Automatic annotation (TrEMBL):
Residues 29-44 have a biased composition (Low complexity). This is CTLH domain-containing protein. The lineage of its organism: Eukaryota, Viridiplantae, Streptophyta, Embryophyta, Tracheophyta. Residues 65-121, 469-526 form the CTLH domain. Residues 29-58, 320-358, 652-671 are annotated as: Disordered. InterPro entries: CTLH/CRA (IPR024964), CTLH_C (IPR006595), Ubq-SigPath_Reg (IPR050618). PROSITE patterns: CTLH.
Length: 715
């Protein structure tokens, strides 16, 4: 599962959209609630065209609505029904026109007033009965008056009496059920669905768990999925009575929704009814009922963003409630952090440092959520030094990494600055959920304890050494993304002369890029020199590279058929280089990539078993995550067995053909249409409440006759 190809660039786009939608980065002008951007700040992505201004406004409104929903949820869960009602009257008054919901909230308000236990609150509870609850019970729904009479028993039964007939009304669990119900209804009413990445992650993890359960295989990411996805879901939005007149829905839609989000058939019908027959809106409503642990998700996203160079590794110590950390370093969970003195050793004194007379006045740097005195990193060009803390205290010209000669790694680090880590990188600083106290840092995230990292007492030299490695790898990745293959080879050889001896396929691909770049510029003699010096010898040592070599040489005959920047999969090559070099330096891939690799794999396998195409794949951008470009100019250049020759680095972006055929089946697998009629499949699924795969297998045993299958089951 860990070797399943994933399109890193598609995942980057989803995560950037998630970070912007949830306002997790500093100085993002998309949302009015974020701090104002400074003139020198770079945006997370290129500024949107004028035509997208309405989309930006819609995203901002959706963000504010999600904050409102979380606030109302928090108030109900804490028992403050009055404040929740005030927010509803102010922001979503039409919700309270549904007397079912109003009765539910007023009943809980009555219980909460009694729960307080004072004589004054008891009088308020009786007044609530007379003025609000009783009138609402008369026309809420037929059973409401009976429920009203039942809840009166709370006046005489104590809240601690677990055997009382109203123990369920007194239960704290009741609060969470009502809070979840209100969240589901408000989410649909305000069109405040979660960002696509959240829905995609829920969907893929749900399928992954179901697949592992049904196939009896153990999940390699169970440690993460158990903490990411809560078992309990929010209650479904209650269908309005006025919608019962909706005509019957297409059975294909009903079954697709039921099996996509694990509903009963009636649950799928009710969901479609609530969404007025809109399949994808119903799907959004249902998938958002699955609750994510946002504290853990934010940690995983931050780790990924640092690894990919989307955000700065130095995070602000704002009141976001999330631990601030860099890369894969282990962070201080106690909130005290650690400080360091000028000599780079840990120090318990966190007092403010003063700059010397010859230094610029800048605020203390934050590394791993802790204050580091600027005395350690200040040079005349303090801006650069603050941005790129890759020098040791003792030798500011040295950015060595373990096992690499200092002189060579120093040159690589300086080159990284000029090429990749300058002002143009456009990185943002991580902000966290400082607008939202719904997700405090109370849920531990201990994934880093199972990975290579540094404890809270690591020296500043070690921290700088780690950041040096990360910046070096990101610098090489940026060079590769820009098509600077010769420079990449030069830098990697300076960093680790043994690297390409163990990763010859990567060297071959880089030299291919260099060859094609020279052909594109008209330098045919230079291109042939590269082919003779590198491509030929590499192919001679690896017969699997011989065919790609021949196809590459054809570019000499058709130089105008290849648009160098447009056609070459430079981003995919850069990502593979990042993973390979990072592993060489002891930097592991982010845990979020482990999750995506495993869940994409099981998604592929699940729909092979189901023998159908996923109706929601495009909607959730799962298809984009699977669109992994091959490493060469054309598919004929990259043989299907290319990835078997790539040793020592991740296969995430190497596969030459990773997408399933259009019918969702594997190439050697018979599609469901060849086994039996789609109507017969749906009939068996409906009558026997079976998953699609089981229905197909039964039909295959009885020549595709649905009536025979049903008769045999009930015989």
């Amino acid at each position: 599962m860990d070797s399943t190809p994933v399109n890193w660039e598609a995942l980057d786009a989803l995560i950037i959209e998630f970070a912007k939608s949830e306002n997790l980065v500093i100085n993002d002008s998309s949302f009015s609630s974020s701090p104002p951007s400074s003139p020198s700040s770079s945006s997370l992505s290129p500024p949107p065209p004028p035509s997208s201004s309405s989309s930006s406004s819609s995203a901002s409104l959706s963000y504010q609505s999600r904050l409102l929903i979380r606030q109302i949820r928090r108030l109900i869960e804490s028992g403050d029904i009055d404040s929740a009602l005030d927010l509803l009257r102010l922001h979503a008054p039409s919700i309270l026109n549904d007397h079912r919901l109003l009765f539910c909230l007023q009943k809980q308000k009555f219980i909460e007033l009694l729960r307080r236990g004072t004589a004054e609150d008891r009088d308020s509870a009786v007044n609530c009965l007379r003025t609000a609850l009783a009138p609402c019970a008369l026309d809420a729904y037929p059973e409401a008056y009976e429920e009203f009479k039942h809840v009166l028993l709370a006046l005489i039964y104590d809240k601690d009496d677990s055997t009382s007939p109203v123990a369920n009304e007194w239960s704290d669990r009741r609060r969470f059920e009502i809070a979840g119900l209100m969240s589901s209804i408000l989410r649909a009413h305000l069109h405040a669905h979660d960002p696509v990445f959240c829905m995609t992650l829920r969907y893929l993890i749900s399928i992954h768990k179901e697949f592992c359960l049904r196939q009896g295989v153990s999940s390699p990411i169970s440690d993460l999925t158990e903490r990411l996805l809560f078992e309990e879901r929010d209650p479904p939005a209650t269908p309005q009575e006025s919608l019962f007149e909706v005509p019957p829905f297409d059975e294909v839609d009903i079954q697709a929704l039921a099996h996509a989000v694990q509903l009963t058939r009636q649950g799928a019908v009710d969901s479609l009814r609530f969404a007025k027959g809109d399949l994808f809106k119903a799907f959004q409503n249902e998938i958002c009922r699955v609750r994510l642990n946002m504290t853990v998700l934010d940690e995983l996203v931050h780790e990924y963003c640092v690894y990919r160079g989307i955000v700065d590794p130095v995070a602000p110590s704002s009141g976001s409630g999330l631990p601030s950390h860099s890369g894969h370093m282990e962070v201080d969970r106690s909130g005290t952090g650690f400080c360091s003195s000028g000599n780079g050793s840990p120090d318990g004194d966190c007092g403010n440092s003063k700059n010397s007379d010859g230094e610029s006045s800048i605020s203390n740097a934050l590394i791993d959520g802790c204050e580091i005195s600027t005395e350690m990193i200040t040079k005349p060009d303090t801006d650069v030094e603050m941005r790129f803390p890759c020098e040791n205290v003792s030798n500011l010209d040295d950015c060595s990494t373990s096992g690499i000669p200092q002189a060579k790694s120093s040159r690589v680090c300086r080159r990284n600055r000029s090429h990749a880590v300058g002002e143009g990188r456009g990185r943002k600083r991580w902000r966290g959920r400082s607008d939202d106290s719904d997700f405090p840092a109370g849920v531990p995230f201990d994934g880093s304890s199972k990975r290579e990292g540094f404890g809270i007492h690591a020296s500043v030299d070690v921290l700088y050494n780690k950041e040096d490695k990360c910046e070096t790898v990101l610098g090489i990745k940026e060079l590769a993304s820009g098509g600077m293959a010769a420079e990449v080879v030069e830098e990697v050889n300076a960093l680790d002369p043994e690297f390409f001896r163990q990763n010859s396929a990567l060297l071959f691909q880089l030299k291919q890029v260099e060859f094609l770049k020279l052909v594109d510029s008209g330098d045919h003699s230079g291109a042939l020199k590269v082919a003779c010096s590198y491509l030929g010898p590499l192919a001679a040592n690896d017969p699997g590279l011989l065919k790609p070599l021949k196809e590459t040489l054809l570019a000499l005959l058709r130089p105008n058929e290849v648009a160098f920047r447009k056609d070459l999969p430079l981003d995919a090559l850069a990502s593979s280089l990042q993973v390979a070099i990072g592993r060489r330096l002891g930097i592991q891939e982010p845990q979020l990539m482990r999750v995506m690799q495993a869940t994409i794999h099981t998604h592929n396998e699940w729909f092979k078993v189901q023998m159908c195409k996923d109706r929601f794949e495009s909607f959730l951008k799962v298809d984009a995550l699977k669109e992994v470009k091959s490493m060469l100019v054309a598919n004929t250049v990259y043989g299907s067995n290319m990835d078997t020759h790539i040793h020592g680095f991740s296969q995430d972006t190497v596969s030459s053909s990773t997408r399933l055929p259009e019918d969702g089946a594997s190439p050697n697998q018979v599609s469901s249409q060849e086994v039996c009629d789609e109507g017969a499949i749906l009939k068996v699924m409906e009558f026997l409440a079976l998953p699609r795969a089981d229905a197909i297998h039964l039909l295959a045993q009885y020549n595709g006759n649905a009536e025979t299958v049903i008769q045999q089951i009930f015989a």
